[in-house]
């Protein structure tokens, strides 16, 4: 029974292998029809989703946590690490929305990529990604989680560099992989600390949770920070965020699935999963919350000055991830996860809508070259409006409830600075999102004759489903003050706040009103500036924010260039000209000595006679002295 | 089954001698047949291996020169078992992929001769016998590089030979001194390593003897700064030479540390633990940086070998089960992965007659299978979990974490730097536009190459997912070895360090 958990991972993995092999077959031997790839690729996430639903109903019964140990993976010195999986409320929650949104994005991608030569390869990577992501979530211990953690990074790399003829994509792919590796390094360090100090009886979450209270706090702090470095890499927080905007080089479904809805939230999931650790080190949690807050404001500022539609959305993803980290850092895990959940819907929708616009406009990504889409594509107008309202936090759309809950948590914990960061970001979010929206849909036409590329049904239908989701999923977490039950909070009660919040209902309503006000302020400014935006004139963005605060340039100067120069020096000078030269010179020394000594054997009889006499006289002298 | 070890050691050389009688046209098939039989013999050895015994088993012991206690003494344990299988497997696979036509007969005989010496090194427990195989292995390799290499092959071959030989001579002095010492203390001559394990040496003698052995092993590994022969040897060697050099011969050095240095001179090993760990760390980072600066694809992989060997050394000198088992597992994983990578470089070199990365670019679109297998091996090399590369690296670092977390952290940056040079290699060679006209008509892998590479791909993934059958015997033998060390340490401080290394929570 429990072994069915593994199939949630195995089905996409198997489907990926079939896709990979048949793609190879297709390019080597005989063309495989596209329909075959589509059928396999799209059915895998659906199957996992159905399994997830099945377990959802099972979980209503007695058993709340399902375990399955497949086999012993590593066993050293009596300490075993099993290839084992765990399905609890948290992992099921993640599985359900990932497979659901993932399924929709698969359908969308089947339309988006339909004319691509690498169709089979794309879905091979896509399903492989899904399998890795589900492995990350269903793992029962840090090391198994790490397998998925690295797996999603690999797939992200492969998908960013999907069009590998283009140098820019490759740079972006390498950047993503290496930035993530820096994070993974932190993750490994954190894991080692836990393994070393708390892994005596087993290296799974259950045993770790039991052992961790015995470990000194300062060591736990190190472990917590090191693990969070991993999250910084995966979830694009300062200072390891640089890869995410560049990752938009990948095809748009990739951005929607990996760089918005699922993979980037792995860091948030990780912190929530290690709640037993972070609960004990609240100061580390506070640090995480501040990193999140600063990242979120920083990204929102940059987003206000971008022109590329996907870049704007990428920075907004980073900004929303910042919110999630504020929540999980403050220990409000369920609030953070609620935002992960709603964000998956509206951000996937935003990306997919953006992708549809890009396709319709024949691969145009500059918002200032779009304009007037309201009449040309009314369907896209509506779905994008819903998604934009959702991300801005306008009730009753999904983003409102989750964002409100996070800000409420910050306020109730008397972290007013964090709260202020959050509110400021909310203003900016509303501003840059509506800036995008007004320019794209209301801006005066650039070239009216442009014929839109028709959109396939497989592209539009998922948009509608997600739009419906973006309206309604927020109600799953309807707070009690509005007469709701906060179903999400109840479902994740193990990860929710233990202590009740000491905030009165009036305050709660006031905060809510303030959030809506903040969003409205942002929308109003955007309306004033961009509602009647003339796109026939050139719009150039200048200033620090437009140039992304020169972070890339800074990293180039302090990390990449010195590393390159030092490598060149070591490789071409130190290794060859110094170390090897010392070795060669010392062996040449032998030859020199040999040459010198060889002169004695010059085949010159006179010289030999001289040597003999010399030797004899030395001997005679010696004997004379000794015999004396 | 009684003489299986002798059979495994001497079958290749005996069968190889018959190759002189075989016609040059069919000698390739003959060589492959011998290698396959030899591989199956080593599998038979594995099947006969008793997992319950953590010490030596299948012992074969005859006196050779009884006056001086020299004997023919072979035995196997968990540490050497998989190194033997690695040797036979890699030889077989390398012969599958062999495409050299020139003097093929001599080459095959040299490879089979080399196989005997490699297996002999791992199975000999009489140290004189060990030394014979150790030195004899240089000869066929010298010949392989010198006769079938590229332009500067003679220089590279002689450099390789003299450098490693110079180190070994000092070891011979150490061996003779140890033998003499054993005679003085017990009154009988013996060169059996199991006898020597019983002997407790004074600390200052340990230091000297450790040094004598150290140089031989360090040059073979090769440890920084004794590594400069390796890039030349790889640069000039033919593919089969590079494969065997990287996959097996380098492991002789690290095997030497595990089999001799650690249990014979435990106090000295612990005394030098931190300095060696620092050298290993330097090696990891230094070689990774040099690899990044290379233009030649083969040199990148050669330097990446040095970088990975650094992690192996680090794990070995962690002196605990995780570290040493991890390092032995990594010897095997690195053998498979680097062997495969050198083979892959051979594939492209044969088609284009260059190894310079700037000549390539966009290969993924003309040679998709080649690019895929390369990518899998690359992931094995950077240590992605569920590939074979992860486990050894992780355990080695984890092992040393108990000794010193700062050194481990610094060495651990190798996982970042490894990704840097490998991704840069892949980007430059396989991705990007297909510019060079000569690359446009390249053919993808042929049957011969598939037959060599597919088994390697399987192993890389299979052992990554399920390493238990290999890891279990290794770790139980390692545990046994640590017990021997523990019995022999004399200094109080080293005892404490050994205890700390082997207890959870740093002996808190």
Structural descriptors:
heterodimer; A: 628 residues; mainly alpha; two-stranded antiparallel ribbon; globular; B: 508 residues; 23 helices; 74% helix
Walk me through what this model shows.
- The complex is a heterodimer of chains A (628) and B (508).
- In chain A, a hairpin with a 2-residue loop joins strand 1 and strand 2.
- Chain A starts with a helix and ends with a helix.
- In chain A, helix 17 (378-392) runs parallel beside helix 20 (457-472).
- Chain A has helices at 4-28, 34-58, 89-112, 119-138, 142-160, 167-198, 205-211, 217-234, 243-246, 252-261, 266-273, 275-278, 282-303, 309-329, 333-360, 373-376, 378-392, 398-412, 416-442, 457-472, 487-491, 505-530, 551-598, 605-627, and strands spanning 66-76, 79-87.
- Chain A is mostly helical and 628 residues long.
- The radius of gyration of chain A is 31 Å and the shape is globular.
- The longest helix of chain B is centred in the middle third of the chain and has 34 residues, at 153-186.
- Chain B is globular, with a radius of gyration of 22 Å.
- In chain B, strands 1-2 form a two-stranded antiparallel sheet.
- The model of chain B has no long low-confidence stretch (mean pLDDT 91).
- Helices cover 74% and strands 3% of the residues of chain B.
- In chain B, a hairpin with a 4-residue loop joins strand 1 (57-65) and strand 2 (70-76).
- Chain B has 508 residues and is mostly helical.
- Chains A and B meet through helix 1, strand 1, helix 5, helix 6 and helix 23 of A and helix 13, helix 15, helix 17, helix 18 and helix 19 of B.
Shape of chain A: globular
Q: What's the story with the biggest beta sheet of chain B?
A: 2 strands, antiparallel
Rounded to the nearest angstrom, the radius of gyration of chain B is: 22 Å
Percent of residues in helices of chain A comes to over 70%
Anisotropy-based shape of chain B = globular
User: Strand order across the biggest sheet of chain B?
Assistant: 1-2
The pair of chains with the biggest contact is: A-B, 51 and 63 residues
Secondary-structure element pattern of chain B, one letter each: HHEEHHHHHHHHHHHHHHHHHHHHH
Describe the largest sheet of chain A: 2 strands, antiparallel
- As a percent range, the share of strand residues of chain A is under 5%
Strand arrangement, largest sheet of chain A? 1-2
Number of helices of chain A: 24
